[in-house]
Amino acid sequence: MSEIIFPPDFAWGAGTAAYQIEGGWQADGKGPSIWDTFCHEEGRVFGEQNGDVACNSYELWEKDLECIQQLGLTHYRLSFSWARLLPHGTTQHVNQKGVQYYNKVIDDLLACNVSPMVTLYHFDLPQALQDQGGWKSPSTAGLFDSYARFCFQTFGDRVKLWITINEPYVCAKLGNEDGIHAPGLREKGTAAYLVGHNMLRGHAMAWHSYDSLYRPQQKGAVSLAINSDWIEPLDPGREADVAAAERDLAFTLGWFAWPVFVTGDYPEIMRSAIDAQSAKLKHSGESRLPRFSEDDPTILGTADFFALNHYTSRKATAGGDCEETLCMKSDRNVEEVVDSSWPICGVSWLAVVPSGLRKLLKYIKDTFHNPAVYITENGFSQVGPLQIEDVHRCQFYKDTILEVAKAIEEDGVDVRGYFAWSLMDNFEWADGFSVRFGLFHVDFSDAELSRTVYRSGKEYAKIIAKYTSGQSK
C-alpha cells in the first residue's frame, strides 16, 4: 500500500488494569479481591511477589497522567477495582473513597482531552463473593449486573466506552481449570465452562441494563473484551489440521463471540465435542457445557462493538494422544505449536507475528457480521536485563500498526481504535514483575517508583502524533 491512512477519529490508546497498577490494596476502605488472596498464598506467583503496592497508581495517579500526556493518547483504558468501590461486592456498602478516586481519574483524563475506556471486571472478583461461590455461582451474574448499574449510574455521564468483562476465557481456564490465576482452582473440565457461562450471563445482564436504563441519556457503547490468538493449520493440506484449527478457534474466540455475535449460543462444534466427550466418560449423564435457559437474558446482540485482545499466533494440529479425562484439552483435542520462523518475544508463549493480527481481523469481519472493532490489548514483552532502548519492540509496533492499516484499507475491516498493552510496566499476574510490557519502565526497586519512557514509547508517541495531526506516510 502506498500510504497509511487511519480514520480521523481513530482511538489511539494504551491500557492498564486496577490490580496490576493501583496498589493500595487495603487503603481507604478497599475490600480484598481474589488476587489479593491468591498472591498472599505461598508458591502462587513468581518470586512470591504481589500487587500490594505495584505501581502505586492509587497515590501516584498524576504520574500516570503525565505518561498518558507524554504519549499523546486520545484514549486510555483502565479498569475499576470492584472491591475498591464495593468492598463486600454488593451495593449495600459503597466505599466513597473509591468513588472519589475514579471520579478524579476520569475528570483528569477528560480535562486533558483523553477519553476513558473503562473495564468493570479485569480478573479481580471481591473475595467476599468468591467466598459465596464466585463465578461458579449463578447468583454472581446478578451481583455483577448490580455493580455494573452502580458504575453506569455513577460514572456513565462521562464514560462513553465500557468493557464489562475482560478475557472471560482467561478467567475461566487459567483461574478455574489450570489454577495458575486467581482463584487458583483446578477443577478439570467442569468449573471453566460454568464460570464462562455465568460470565456471559452477567455480561448480557449488564448490557441490557445499560441499553434500557442508561443508553438513552448517556449514549455510550458496551462490549466485553475477548482474547484470541490467530490460529491456522500446521499443514493446510491436511484435513485433520484444518479441522483442528477451526476447532481451536471455536473453543477460544468462538466460546464467547459466537453467543454474542452469531447465534446466542455456543458454537455447534464446541457443543458437540463436549457433549460427546461427556457421554464417553459418563459424566453424570449430562453435558458439562451448560445451556442457556428461558430465564437467562438474551445473549445475542449484547455488544456494541467487538473488543479484541490479541498477542500472538499459533498453528494447530489434531491432538492425537489426548488422555481420556475430564479436561478442556481433551474436549478440544488440539495441539498448538509455534512456527520456528516466528521470533519469540520475551515469554515462551508470545511469538511475534504482526500479520496474524490482520488475518484475525479479517476473520472477525467475515465471521461476526463485520462489527466495529477496537483492538483493546496488543503488546510486546521484555524479560531479563532492562532495555530502555527496546528496538525490537519499536519495530513490533511499527509492523503491527501497518498490519492494522492494511486490515482497514485493503480488507475493509471497521477498526475504530488500537490500545497498546500497556501504559507502563506492572504486576503481570503469575509472572509478577519479571515480565515487562510497558511503554514506560517502572523502577520497582525505587521507593518513588519512577516512570521512564522506553524508546518504544517515544516511537508510539510519534506514530500517534503523525495520524492525529492528519498526516499520512
TrEMBL record:
UniProt-listed Pfam families: Glyco_hydro_1
Entry annotated with the keyword Hydrolase: yes
UniProt-listed SUPFAM superfamilies: (Trans)glycosidases
Keywords for this protein: Glycosidase, Hydrolase
Active site: 377 (nucleophile)
PROSITE patterns in the record: GLYCOSYL_HYDROL_F1_1 (PS00572), GLYCOSYL_HYDROL_F1_2 (PS00653)
GO MF terms, alphabetically ordered: beta-galactosidase activity; glycosylceramidase activity
Domain of life according to the entry: Eukaryota
Gene Ontology BP annotations: carbohydrate metabolic process; glycosylceramide catabolic process
Name of protein: Cytosolic beta-glucosidase-like
Species of origin: Salarias fasciatus
A GO cellular component entry from the record: cytosol
InterPro entries xrefs: GH (IPR017853), GH_1_N_CS (IPR033132), Glyco_hydro_1 (IPR001360), Glyco_hydro_1_AS (IPR018120)
Gene3D superfamilies: Glycosidases
Homology family: Belongs to the glycosyl hydrolase 1 family.
